[in-house]
């Protein structure tokens, strides 16, 4: 059961309805899912979250399917059933096959297992892995 009510459009404050309308326009659908309907109880939170999500999930160096698959992986790690379901549906709509989904879950499971082992055994990081990350778009060695 949701902590906050799932608001129908006519129950949303005006500011939240504006965000819901932007969700519909951006996604080219009439469907606004329960996550946004719950966030509509706090229009400022809803707007901030939507603006951030549009930026992160919008066009970039990673293609939309890869972004959705990363979202699934993080959602599995965080045990967010809602997020797993919604982003799996989105990834499937973007072309994720059942084979890709199965492989993704295998990678997530393996990463979880080896992460726990490395943490439990307190394995020190190899010097070769301690290189400082390069700045984006900088030539190698800078």
UniProtKB/TrEMBL annotation:
Which species? Stappia sediminis
Q: Which InterPro entries match?
A: AhpD-like (IPR029032), AhpD_core (IPR004675), CMD-like (IPR003779)
Per UniProt, residues of the Carboxymuconolactone decarboxylase-like domain are 43-123
Superkingdom per UniProt: Bacteria
Q: Name one Pfam family in it.
A: CMD
Molecular function GO labels: peroxiredoxin activity
Quote the protein name from its UniProt record.
Carboxymuconolactone decarboxylase family protein
């Amino acid at each position: 059961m949701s902590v906050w009510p799932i608001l129908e459009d006519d129950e949303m404050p005006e500011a939240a309805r504006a965000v819901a309308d932007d969700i519909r326009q951006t996604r080219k659908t009439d469907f606004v899912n329960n996550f946004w309907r719950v966030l509509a109880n706090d229009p400022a939170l809803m707007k901030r979250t939507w603006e951030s999500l549009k930026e992160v999930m919008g066009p970039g160096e990673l293609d939309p399917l890869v972004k959705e698959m990363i979202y699934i992986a993080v959602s599995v790690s965080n045990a967010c059933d809602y997020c797993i379901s919604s982003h799996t549906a989105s990834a499937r709509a973007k072309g994720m096959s059942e084979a890709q989904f199965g492989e993704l879950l295998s990678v997530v499971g393996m990463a979880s297992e080896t992460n726990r082992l490395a943490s439990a055994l307190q394995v020190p990081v190899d010097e070769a892995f301690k290189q400082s990350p390069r700045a984006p778009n900088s030539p190698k060695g800078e």
